[in-house]
Amino acid sequence: MVFGFGDKGITIRDAHFPGRPGIDAYGNGGFRFADMSHRGSLLLLPSGVYGWEQTEDDPLTEASLERVFAETGIEFLILGTGRQLRLVNPDLRAALKAKGIATDPMGTGAAIRTYNIMLAEQRPVAAALIAV
User: Fold this and answer.
1) CA within 13 Å, CB half, 129
2) Nearest-angstrom CA–CA distance, 106 and 88
3) Which of these, 28, 92, 26, lies nearest to 58 by C-alpha position?
4) Is 104 left (phi over 0), alpha (psi -120 to 50) or beta?
5) pTM of the full predicted structure?
6) What is the pLDDT of residues 22-78, one digit of tens each?
7) Cα–Cα distance between 30 and 32 in angstroms, integer?
8) Is pLDDT above 80 for 15?
9) Can you give the three-state secondary structure of 13-73, one letter per residue?
């Protein structure tokens, strides 16, 4: 979340960065990208970077990836599942496939490296990264 100050006090809004940056660093519960830092998990989509309310303990579901399903232009979803690899539920994998999105789960560190490479290659990639 991003906090802003206005005439009516503090305003809380969803964290959003409108670009497509690579991830520079991760750890301590967050990420560094585009000379900024973010605590918590992230969705890196064609429309930008969004804060994501997902932890290693939360199940990965269609609802938790709602913003991914709403996007266009994604062919690959790199899924950083935290400290360890977590398999994707077959129903979720099928729903992503029906939308034309292949998914590859891996630990968050490996997911960041893979995402950065695919982004540099200008491939139609998105990432869902659970903070570690």
Assistant:
1) 34
2) 10
3) 92
4) beta
5) 0.87
6) 999 999 999 999 988 999 999 999 999 999 999 999 999 999 999 999 999 999 999
7) 7
8) no
9) ECCEECCCCCCCEEECCEEEECCEEEECEEEEECCEEEEECCCCCCCCCCCCCHHHHHCCC
